[in-house]
Amino acid sequence: MTGRTKSVSAEAVKQIARDLGAHLVGIASAATLNRFPPDPKWPQTPERVAPNAKSVIVIGNRVPVAGFRCKSQHVYSYLNLRVLRRADRIAKAISDRLEADGHPCTVTPSNSTVWEIKYGTYGHLSLRHLAVEAGLGTLGLEINLLTPEYGPRVNFAAIVTELELEPDKPMTEQVCIGESCSRCLYACPTDAVKHFGLDKRACATAAQITGFPNFMALCFKAARGGRADQEKFVNSRNFFQFWRGWTGVTGSYGTCPRCEAVCPVGNDYHLHLADVQKVIPETTPAKIEKAKRFQAARKGGEKVDGLSEWNRRWVGPEGYKGIVARQLQEFKKRQVERSTAERPSGERSTVEVLPPARKR
């Protein structure tokens, strides 16, 4: 740090992020985030992190589709964790670059818990809401962040900075198809999907198989038993899995990929997941009926917590207007063009590649 500051534009910051390997990048105004916290009762706002914050830079890295074609939850969890850590490293590198130019920055933890705000997994900032404000997507039926490029199969990181940058405009069209799709609802093994909401405790039993709630449940069970039961617990496979989770985090975070795997938003789904994820074996008549109730409530204008005037900001105030259908049509068009294009060797190309992310 030289004591002098160097002017940096929003586009320059985004190019730095892309050069470092970010697949998506957007910028949100700290002032706007302070005015519109996800839940005003427990405000996750930049001013709580850094009182002089002006902007929040949000980067996203897609999770490779191979993870959603695997049978093993641990394989997916490990891959998911590696992508999350890569996003953290890119965010730290961006922070270092900006601080070298005289602009104080801080990288917020990706999966932290701020106990003085709220019990449970509740971070300093909500990355999904930051991503919406940065123009990268909108929240889905299960409140995952859905991007047009990769659906919910993206991990995010954020840099809070005192550098004032031109913010991106949030998307107003709902990216999630919504109630008429409900594939995330059908696939959820714990039936945790609400109407643009989530039963986080139910979700955690599958999404964090060696996370804190499941660990405490096993500990209480062992404590109520006798010495023989306790020794059996310590030498059990479950205890070993928890130990592995503590030391490597694998299995403690992002273990269940079902809602992300079946979401039809994004070219990555059309390319590599539509064949293996078309049928959802977890579907039940009760879930189908639940989806119908959601659809009727939306059409009837009933009061829905997830679609309140406050929450519509992140769901997409204009509602769903066919963005996924348009994207699929464009995808199929490119597939036809590629299948008829001649390679230099005379062979025909039938392989589609993921398009570059939007430049924001």
Characterize the structure shown.
Helix content is 43%, strand content 9%. It has two domains: 10-204 and 254-317, no CATH class; 209-248, no CATH class. The protein has 360 residues and is an alpha+beta fold. Helix 1 (10-20) crosses helix 4. Strand 4 and strand 5 form a beta hairpin.
Short account of what is shown:
With 360 residues, the protein is an alpha+beta fold. It is built from 16 helices and eight strands.
Give the helix proportion (percent range): 40-55%
Count of individual domains: 2
Radius of gyration (Å): 22 Å
State the low-pLDDT regions, or none: none
Percent of sequence in beta strands: 5-15%
Give the SSE order as H and E letters.
Answer: HEHHEHEHEEEHEEHHHHHHHHHH
Tally of DSSP β-strands: 8
Which class best fits the helix and strand makeup?
Answer: alpha+beta
Distance between the termini: 29 Å
What about the largest sheet? Answer: 4 strands, antiparallel
Record the strand order, biggest sheet: 1-2-6-3
Number of helices: 16
State mean pLDDT (0 to 100 scale).
Answer: 88
Shape descriptor:
globular
Considering the chains and any ligands shown, give keywords for the structure.
single chain, 360 residues, alpha+beta, 2 domains, four-stranded antiparallel β-sheet, two-stranded antiparallel sheet, 8 strands, globular
